[in-house]
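[retry 2/3] TIR domain-containing protein: previous attempt timed out, resubmitting with same input.
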Amino acid sequence: MAYRNKTYVAFDGDEDMRYYQLLKAWNENDNIDFDFYDAHDLNYAYDTNQEESIKNQLRKRFDNSKLFILLVGEKTKRLRKFIPWKIDQALNRELPVVVVNLNGEEHLDADRCPTKLQEELAVHIPFKAAILNYAVKNWPDADAKYRKEGETGAYIYNDSVYSALGT
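[retry 2/3] TIR domain-containing protein: success.
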């Protein structure tokens, strides 16, 4: 069994790559309190023309992940190939899910969030370094607690968390 210490970040590669790149920049910037171990840093060779080859390598990244982040942009809900598959992988592995709204919403954005995640236990946050860092550090334990209690559905942080973080 793989050591699970990574964070798997899923996003619309055609539209939202710049947000993923910004996450990586925050992670590398010593002046920003943001830290995560990116599952995408696990390099595997695969045939990019073969969907099953890609999925096999992505499964290996999921096997090393302890958290799933979905960057939700304008078109995320309408994606039909890899994003739904990645959501299934995260849910089947019972990974804690952080839904990051690229439009800044602090709650479930039903117009953009994939339908499959709307009823699942997941925290919904805006795309801001402080709250995302907080979620990366705190949501896995909260998810385990809520899951044990049988909780489902969208979770949001209250205003006091945002105030304490200065956002």
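[retry 2/3] TIR domain-containing protein: The helical segments are 17-28, 51-63, 82-92, 115-118, 129-148, 159-165.
[retry 2/3] clearing retry counter.
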